[in-house]
């Protein structure tokens, strides 16, 4: 299940170690998460649901759902998708709710290590990286947090070349952009990076924002800054169909993480649900990895992604079935088949049009929703704006929310592309430094330049609905929560 050859990627694996799944040895490599190592060994059932005891497998692979929770060295509820392997680890499937062993003593709040900076950035994806870089260049000291073991967010799994202008990395692959931005962050002495650090709460103490975090599942830490930028990205959406919880059903991003970041094949035969840009790009990334794509299923009457991506998929001979939906997944402990059907004008399945695909993977490329939980907890005003992907924080043109000193950027502010995430990160980073009185007024011109670039990027047919959503948000339309 491991990829040793790839037309675009080279996988540099760490030192080989042995972990133990249910007492049986499993080969793993330092630097990869537990779930990736188990998948490479053909182990897809990671836990069982609390009530029905149904098998569960990896779904998002970025630590934002509960599908991969397992018991590791006796400790339950470990997110194995972002927890790195260590030699000798003992791993067991978690069966519903589990208790801490008696000998385990959680750290106490008074023992939390404190770190201070002018600005704290939560999220090391394209928006967070650009926010940190520009805030630092504007004169601020910055702490950058990410719960994953590497910087880059979704960029680290994107092998396609970006569109746009040269200064927005046009013609550069996402995996390379991640390296460029990380290099820029690392060479700035006024940016301090903390990986494997999960933010669990935001609090106001005097004129400071306090971010309470857990680092490496062990250490409590608190980060303090006079301004905070939340760039926590988004998480995969789910759609209802029979057996949609079987192992082997993944969000599209999880497949990209396994395949493009860690060099692990998700399976042999895949059905993709969703013909937007993500589904189309995923299709030819799977082919690059030697995985057979049976078809792409799309409920709408036409393909939703860019023509260039759809044309590439069609040249590969992959059928795109519009006006179709998935009815059910079949299998016992994992996906073995998928059943689809054509839809009528009322979006109802047409009897007799069912098709059965023998697949071991179903990839859901059905959209994302912003990760706003921390913003909600911090007291930011939240609205539902359909064009932005769901619930988002109300913010102004400088990306500042209704809580003064808390800014937002990237998919957390509304679902778009990495290019717009980077531009919003730039605006938020500079704006935070200006609000604190650190940056000189000349930096306002950089914000205005980024705003013009955003407006231009959104002027195309795929950006107009986002622009409309932002107009609603700035005008106070969309409905309070």
UniProtKB/TrEMBL annotation:
**Keyword Oxidoreductase (UniProt):** yes
Going by the entry's taxonomy, the superkingdom of the source organism is recorded as: Archaea
Keyword Cytoplasm recorded: no
FAD/NAD(P)-binding domain residues: 118-425
Recorded GO molecular functions are: 2 iron, 2 sulfur cluster binding; oxidoreductase activity
Enumerate the UniProt keywords alphabetically.
Answer: Oxidoreductase
- Report the Gene3D superfamilies cross-referenced here: 2Fe-2S iron-sulphur cluster binding domain, sarcosine oxidase, alpha subunit, N-terminal domain, FAD/NAD(P)-binding domain
Q: What is this protein called?
A: Sarcosine oxidase subunit alpha
Q: Which organism is it from?
A: Thermococcus pacificus
Q: What is the taxonomic lineage of the source species?
A: Archaea, Methanobacteriati, Methanobacteriota, Thermococci, Thermococcales
């Amino acid at each position: 299940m491991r990829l040793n050859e790839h037309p675009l990627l080279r996988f540099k694996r760490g030192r080989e170690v042995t972990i133990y799944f249910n007492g049986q040895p499993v080969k793993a490599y330092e630097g990869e998460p537990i779930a990736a190592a188990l998948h490479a060994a053909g182990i897809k059932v990671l836990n069982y649901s609390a009530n029905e005891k149904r098998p569960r497998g990896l779904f998002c692979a970025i630590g934002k759902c509960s599908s991969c929770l397992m018991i590791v060295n006796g400790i339950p509820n470990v997110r194995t998708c972002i927890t790195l392997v260590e030699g000798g680890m003992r791993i067991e499937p978690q069966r519903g709710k589990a208790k801490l062993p008696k000998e385990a003593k959680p750290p106490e709040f008074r023992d939390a290590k404190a770190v201070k900076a002018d600005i704290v950035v939560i999220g090391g994806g394209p928006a967070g990286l650009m926010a940190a870089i520009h805030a630092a260049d504007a004169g601020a000291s910055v702490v950058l947090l990410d719960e994953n073991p590497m910087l880059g967010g979704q960029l680290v799994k994107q092998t396609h070349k970006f569109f746009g202008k040269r200064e927005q990395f046009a013609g550069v692959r996402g995996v390379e952009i991640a390296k460029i931005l990380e290099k820029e962050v690392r060479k700035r002495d006024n940016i301090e990076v903390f990986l494997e650090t999960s933010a669990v709460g935001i609090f106001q103490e005097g004129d400071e924002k306090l971010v309470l975090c857990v680092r490496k599942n062990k250490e409590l830490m608190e980060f303090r800054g006079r301004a905070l930028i939340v760039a926590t990205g988004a998480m995969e959406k789910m759609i209802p169909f029979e057996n949609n919880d079987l192992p082997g059903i993944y969000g599209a991003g999880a497949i990209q993480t396994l395949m493009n970041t860690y060099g692990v094949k998700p399976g042999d035969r895949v059905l993709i649900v969703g013909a937007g840009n993500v589904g189309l790009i995923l299709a030819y990334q799977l082919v690059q990895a030697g995985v057979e794509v049976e078809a792409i299923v799309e409920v709408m009457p036409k393909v939703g992604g860019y023509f260039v991506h759809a044309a590439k998929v069609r040249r590969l001979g992959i059928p795109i079935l519009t006006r179709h939906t998935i009815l059910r997944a079949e299998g016992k402990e994992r996906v073995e088949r998928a059943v689809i059907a054509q839809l009528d004008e009322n979006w109802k399945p047409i009897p007799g049009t069912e098709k059965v695909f023998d697949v071991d993977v179903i990839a859901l490329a059905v959209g994302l929703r912003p990760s706003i939980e921390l913003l909600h907890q911090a007291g930011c005003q939240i609205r539902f704006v359909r064009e932005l992907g769901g619930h988002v924080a109300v913010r102004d043109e400088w990306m500042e929310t209704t809580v003064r000193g808390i800014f937002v950027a990237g998919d957390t502010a509304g679902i778009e592309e990495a290019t717009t995430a980077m531009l919003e990160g730039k605006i938020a980073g500079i704006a935070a430094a200006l609000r604190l009185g650190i940056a000189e007024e000349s930096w306002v011109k950089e914000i205005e330049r980024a705003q013009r670039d955003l407006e231009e990027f959104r002027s195309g047919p795929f950006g107009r609905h986002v622009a409309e959503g932002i107009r609603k948000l700035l005008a106070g339309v969309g409905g309070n929560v």
